[in-house]
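Q&A log
Question type: sequence-to-structure
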Amino acid sequence: MKWRRIGIVLGGLVYLLLWAIALNGGSRLVAPLTLPIVLGILVGGGNWLNNFMGIKRKPQEFRKRNDEQ
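Response status: OK
Response body:
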């Protein structure tokens, strides 16, 4: 758990550093840096919409393979 937090914090700091570079003139970095934000908003919005409409996740069903044949 400790290493996971350290990884998240370091990843966030690198992401913020890349945004600082992009805003100070690295214009080619802006488009790739906006993708995680946009994807996060889309996934969060979809989850919120499912919850709002009362749609529950179905449990996964695994089929057994017939390897004995």
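Response note: The chain has a mean pLDDT of 88.
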